[in-house]
Hints:
By secondary structure, the chain is mainly beta. 6% of the residues lie in helices and 20% in strands.
Amino acid sequence: xxxxxxxxxxxxxxxxxxxxxxxxxxxxxxxxxxxxxxxxxxxxxxxxxxxxxxxxxxxxxxxxxxxxxxxxxxxxxxxxxxxxxxxxxxxxxxxxxxxxxxxxxxxxxxxxxxxxxxxxxxxxxxxxxxxxxxxxxxxxxxxxxxxxxxxxxxxxxxxxxxxxxxxxxxxxxxxxxxxxxxxxxxxxxxxxxxxxxxxxxxxxxxxxxxxxxxxxxxxxxxxxxxxxxxxxxxxxxxxxxxxxxxxxxxxxxxxxxxxxxxxxxxxxxxxxxxxxxxxxxxxxxxxxxxxxxxxxxxxxxxxxxxxxxxxxxxxxxxxxxxxxxxxxxxxxxxxxxxxxxxxxxxxxxxxxxxxxxxxxxxxxxxxxxxxxxxxxxxxxxxxxxxxxxxxxxxxxxxxxxxxxxxxxxxxxxxxxxxxxxxxxxxxxx
Length: 429
């Protein structure tokens, strides 16, 4: 009788899950007090034990950090390994991370899981410049043009521009110090129409410009005092109509210009003293309408140019500074336009400074030089690839032109000589 009652009691307790007295590990659920029912296998385990886990079943089981079931994804918040997505795990969490290179190095292209390589072109102003604050590299062009932007601090991480950089018509921009990490510009650098930009400090680390470098109509720009690392401009270098630009300080390391080099209509420019490292200009080198320019002696290292034009610099009295120039591959021209609104170059009386010049690949023109009395600075010249023109030089004696023709030799002038209207009467030695 007592055994029968005990059996009934134990059967009822088992039905209610109260069977701690006979609970064993891996027995089927339900489980007694002090035990846990594991989801995988629906078996009982001690509460301090680790249940078998099955990533992807939608239930979080140790050591899983998460389990979204079919929602597990290496591009989501819970990975296929049931780990919570974090920066540095090597998986890009879509909508949260821009990149994930599997490390925590902040000096590479994926700092803080933010993609620092920004693809394409960008045009920004004060309303959206913060959108490219994370960019260390921009693969295309960057155009900054705005009425209200006063500095570029928002893009202080920028190091490389794969296309052009244009700073154009920024009416209040006074500094480019925010570009202090910029090293390379593969395309053009255009700085134009920024009335309050007084300095280029911030471009201190730029070593090369792959295209054209244009600096034009920046009404308060006084110098290039921060371009000390720039050695090469592969395209044109155009420095034009910057009324406060007095010196070229900051371009002392510039060695070559692959295209044209124009120094035009900078009314305060006094000298070219800081171009002492310049060796070659691949295109035309034009020094023109700089009304305060008194000296070009900073060009002492220049040996080769494509073309050379020196005109309308009324305070320039000497060509000293071109003493190392041996070759003009194209044309050579000293030409005043003879218009009332152009000042001419009345203080240049000789071509001394061209003593090393041996060849001119195209034509040689000396025209409308009102103060010129001597051509003897061309004494080393032995060939002219096109024509020789010496004309309309008011005080140059015709015998000077005859002397030059004889010195070169008519047979060494491909298209002959044009010598006319040289009005001097001093005679020749």
